[in-house]
Amino acid sequence: MDLFKSGNPSLTEKIFNKSITAEQEGAMTARGAINKFGFLFIMMLASSAYTWHAFQEGQDVTGYLIGGAIGGFIVAIIITFKRSWAGYLAPLYGLLEGLFVGALSAMISNAFKESYPGIVLQAVALTFGAAIAMFLLYNFRVIRATERFKSIIFTATAGIAIFYLIAMALRMFGIDIPFLHEGGLIGIGFSLFVVAIAALNLIIDFDMIEKGAEMGAPKYMEWYCAFGLLVTIVWLYIEILRLLSKLSSRD
Questions:
Q1: Would you place residue 144 in the very low, low, confident or very high pLDDT band (cuts 50, 70, 90)?
Q2: What single string gives the DSSP state of each residue in 191-218?
Q3: Surface-to-core class of residue 231, CB atoms within 10 Å of its CB (0-12 exposed, 13-18 middle, 19+ buried)
Q4: Does residue 152 fall inside a structural domain?
Q5: Is pTM beyond 0.70 here?
Q6: Burial (Cβ within 10 Å: 0-12, 13-18, ≥19) of residue 62
Q7: Is residue 18 situated within a structural domain?
Q8: Domain range holding 34?
Q9: How many domains does the chain have?
């Protein structure tokens, strides 16, 4: 996994180079990857709607939250190491992430129903807006995925991941990092930084999809790239939701 080439560990130039050496049944295209991302996104929306409705009906969706998160993580790890299985496992990942995202969204919506009744809808709108903006910036070459750009985004992404892992480990011992969850200026600033890094990862994702198509990567890499894009989109949405919840807590 050559993380220095891409902020998203599931989309890297090294992966494409390895894939090209394998037996091919047609080459991937950028359009094919985007179309498959659309399919995965619909799968995620369907399972998200299910858990959202279940919560509204009074069901406990904690199982969906935990099961979706753990299951999605396991499937993501398998796809990362078995890229040729992406066509079979990526839809499952989409469904599992939908269970997780739907349950999380329903819980946060309920928690902020008085102080911020439209928090989930605004987070969705901002996620779509950020994704479209990043695509346009990439498409018109306003932002170019240079090697220096990739290295900077990788370093920031890796730092965020390490910080989150440390925070999780400390929380197991009852120690919380205050600004990670609170709505102070430092906490909001940190969340803004993470949202920006997540959004900029999309630039690298788009670039790697385009490069993969140009290099003639095998057809199954369309599913793999679609999976990688979904990983980034979900991360961006969660971080935006976290940011909005912090902003609401300041009122």
A1: very high
A2: HHHHHHHHHHHHHHHHHHHHHHHHTT-B
A3: buried
A4: yes
A5: yes
A6: exposed
A7: no
A8: 25-249
A9: 1
